Amino acid sequence: MPLRVVVAGATGVVGKRLLPLLRERGHHVTALARRTDRFDEPSADEVVAADLLDPDALRAELRSAAPDVVVDQSSAFSAADRQEALQRTAKLRERGTKNLLDAAVTAGARRFIGQGMTALYRPQGHDVLEEDSPLWTDAPGTWGEVVRAFASMEEELFTRSGIEGVSLRYGALYGPDTQFAPGGDVHARVVGSELPLVGDGVGLTSFTHVDDAAGVVLEVLEGGDPGAYNVVDNEPAESNEWLPAYARMAGAPAPVTLTSEQASSQLDWLTVHQLTEQRGASNFRLRETIGWKPTWPSWREGFASMFGLWPA
């Protein structure tokens, strides 16, 4: 059954993949973005310029759009300065998503699909974590601000009356236009030998191809119970495994290895955390609830495809 769908962050890495999929399914799509000059004409039925930090404008636009479902794919991770990106992301999740949720409820939407991250889980031993694992709300520094903002957003989303709330917790997003793609930040750091292995390199990363992220949104427009879902591939990978493989596929030098002490003096805290103690996530709930299977079940094939090394 066709739905009226509003997509915020429609020019982001997931939003751009999502819009044509929604149109192919016959849904009426209203795209929200801060700028409207980045859209191809057929990508949405309506294109609206809206700032998620302007609650009055959001309410007016959503009343006009009259959505059944509101999807939030907005992001601030494109900022060049990493610290600024984290701070803007925290603000966007805590205030922007709340404004969008308020507007969705006022407009009579039935379901709201928000965006989370599996990187927010509190590190626990060597476990691969499920959705009921605690978020790391007392993490240090700016990262703690980000985790608390996402936690606050999800609490609001899951407890708001009158609407069903779903949070899709993505792993490290890769694929076209992402930081892992040629020209992206991770690619530049690896090619420039600026992203080393640290110690034993046992930090786990769960990866999510942007096409899988967009595809899951389609599946939960009406399906699946409200709540949180990890949207990740089947193979969490330690940094000592995925980083050298990525470098080989990118034609980059093999990553150097630093001790923990060297890394602490040369790298930012968050990078060291991700490479050494971050935990991966399980997609079991999503597979069991809606029968989802990732198009790219392993980052290995996904990376190879990204670099043109996998059959089309």
UniProtKB/TrEMBL annotation:
GO cellular component: cytoplasm
Protein name from the UniProt record: NAD(P)-dependent oxidoreductase
Domain annotation NAD-dependent epimerase/dehydratase: ranges: 5-231
GO molecular function, one term: aldehyde dehydrogenase (NAD+) activity
PANTHER family referenced in this protein's UniProt entry, alphabetically: NAD(P)-BINDING DOMAIN-CONTAINING PROTEIN-RELATED, PROTEIN YEEZ
InterPro entries with a match to the protein in the record: Epimerase_deHydtase, NAD(P)-bd_dom_sf, NAD(P)-dependent_oxidoreduct
Pfam family, one: Epimerase
Signal peptide start-end: none
Provenance organism: Saccharopolyspora rhizosphaerae
Higher taxonomy: Bacteria, Bacillati, Actinomycetota, Actinomycetes, Pseudonocardiales
